[in-house]
Amino acid sequence: PSAPPRRPIRELPDELISQIAAGEVVERPASVVRELVDNALDAGATEIAVKLLAGGVRAIVVEDNGAGMPAEEMPLALRRHATSKIASLAELEQVETMGFRGEALAAIASVADVALCSRPPEAAHAHRLDARSGELSPAARGVGTSVEVRELFFSTPARRKFLKTDATELAHCLEAVRRHALARPDVGFAVWHEGKLIAQWRRASGEQRLRDVLGDDFIAQSRPVDARVGPLRIFGRAGLPDAARARADLQYCYVNGRYVRDKLLAHGVRSAYEDVLHGARQPSYVLFLEIAPDRVDVNVHPTKIEVRFRDSREVHQALRHAVEDALALSRAGAPPEATP
Ligand code: ADP
Ligand code: MG
């Protein structure tokens, strides 16, 4: 077969670059929820409301009471590679915010209708920016930001076809908020669907938040984990072997407050259960790792769901031992903790 005729090399138009990049960041409504809640947390919000229509496909509105944005910066927030969170490589290596790539809002705005409404404390009123028209107008709201995302993938029907039923997309959105809620008991979360409040987690202690999100059964059937190994702190709860499940649907791992899905971490935890869990049974756990930011690279994946550790063996071992210690306690017949 003859080779296709050669076409000249061209630079892609900006819009298309954003749409391509959006493929990495925005898979479904839940990815949008995740990014918008990340932004609200980075803005120091203490109350976050997520309002959805049709499982998030028709609309996702995230409202926060964080620091807001001055009107003149709102157009920049939507530009690719524009961020207030890092300014240098040195800052990237020490980054403690959820975001830093300056990509999410630009990506989302390239595959959906986006509007921002924001008011910083020093502003007399809010401003609203419509991304499509670029129109900036005065608006009414308290200090903080609302981001509205409508008609996800309306211009990319091929991608829209990959969406599942509204009920499934809603479940993924709820899970995205749940992941944040577990890590941030100091922040109140509310989720609305079609005008109805479907989940609410009020500000609470860490222990209480785990109970509120995962239920009394998980607390009763798990043990606290709290270990310090070298530069690493590991805390949270590990499920008793008896409470293992058929599915890996209650496994939460965080690194410096960021939810991650990491084979190394999962394997470290799993290895602690080696002798007590048989077959395909899956342990339940919520584990938070804290490590100096320069010992972990969070910039390996566009959604930052994967991380790379400088010393991965050490982390693996530490995790294994922390969970083993927590479980050994229960094997020795420690009484279940009193409920508060
Ligand atoms: P990143 O989070 O990586 O900086 P984003 O595209 O998610 O990139 O956001 C771009 C910028 O818009 C942020 O750096 C921040 O300054 C601003 N921003 C976005 N969402 C909010 C919010 N909820 N409150 C205040 N500022 C926000
Ligand atoms: Mg962001």
Automatic annotation (TrEMBL):
It comes from Caldimonas caldifontis. GO terms for molecular function: ATP binding; ATP hydrolysis activity; ATP-dependent DNA damage sensor activity; mismatched DNA binding. One of its GO terms (biological process) is mismatch repair. It comes from the Bacteria. Keywords: DNA damage, DNA repair. GO terms for cellular component: mismatch repair complex. The keyword DNA damage applies. Belongs to the DNA mismatch repair MutL/HexB family. Residues 210-328 form the DNA mismatch repair protein S5 domain. This protein is involved in the repair of mismatches in DNA. It is required for dam-dependent methyl-directed DNA mismatch repair. May act as a 'molecular matchmaker', a protein that promotes the formation of a stable complex between two or more DNA-binding proteins in an ATP-dependent manner without itself being part of a final effector complex. This is DNA mismatch repair protein MutL.
